[in-house]
Amino acid sequence: MKHLLSIKDLSQTQLLDLLVLAKDIKTHPENYRKALDGKSVVMLFEKPSLRTRVSFDIGINKLGGHCLYLDQQNGALGKREPIADFAGNISCWADAIVARTFLHSTIECLAEHGSVPVINALSDLYHPCQGLADFLTLSEQFDDLSQVKLAYVGDGNNVTHSLMYGAAILGISLTVMCPLGQFPDGQVVFEAQALAKQHGGELILTSNIDDIVNHDAIYTDTWISMGDNVDLAEIEAKFKPYQVNQAMMEKAGAQYFMHCLPAYRGVEASGEVVDGEGSLIFQQAENRMHAQNAVLVTLLA
Question: Any binding-site annotation on 226?
C-alpha cells in the first residue's frame, strides 16, 4: 500500500490484513503506543466532520503521532494555490496527508503530486475509512464474512460505493436497494460486479422492497448527502417506502442495523431501529478509529 484512495485498490489479502490489524490494535492498544513515534499527519478538511476528525485526531495521538488540522480558513484547496503545490509543500514537513474533500479528483491530485501517503477521509465518490470500519464491525459479529448477506437501503452514494467494493473483495453477498434514479454510479457497479465474480461474492441491485428477505444486516444512510441543495418534500416522497423500520427488519430476518451517521430518527430509519438492541451504529463509530489506525500503521510504521 502506498495510499488509501479507495477500497477497490486493495487486494483481498490486504483488506483482510487491515481488519486483522485493526482488531489487534483495538484489543492491545498498548502494543502500538509508539507506532507513529516522531510521525506527523496533516488533516485537510473541506467539509465539516465529527467522527472523521475526532477519530483520526485521537487515533493518531494513541499511536504516538502528531496531528495537524487544516480547514478552509485559507480558502478551498486549489484556490489559493495549486493543489499540486499544496501537496508538495506538505510533503516537505509531514509524513502523511488525510484529506476530506468535495471532489475525488482533489484526493488523486494530492496523491499524484505529494511524496507521502494520502488517505481518503471522504470524497464525492468514496468513503473507504467508513467502509473499513463497517467490515471490521461485521467481522466482530460473524466469523466468516463470506457467508454474510448485507443489504444497503437508500441513496446510492459514496458510502454505498465503498461498501460495494469491500463486499465484492471479501466475497460478501450485498443487495443494494434504491429508489429509481438513485442507484450508485454505473462504472462503480460494473467494477464491483467484476470483483464479486472474482472473489465469489454477489452484488444485486433492485428497487423492489420485497427483495429485502433473508439478510443478516441492513445498512442505510441519510437521504440527503452533506451539502446537497434539494427539495426535502420531493426526497421524502421518493424515499419514504425505503425507511428502515421494525417491519423491514423483521421481513428481512435481519439481526443487525447499521448506519454511518449522522442518523435522523423517523426519517431514513425509525428511532426504534436506530436505538434498538441490534443497532451497531456506535460500534461502527468506534471502529472508525481502529480501522484508520490500522491504515496509518500499515502505511507509516
Answer: yes
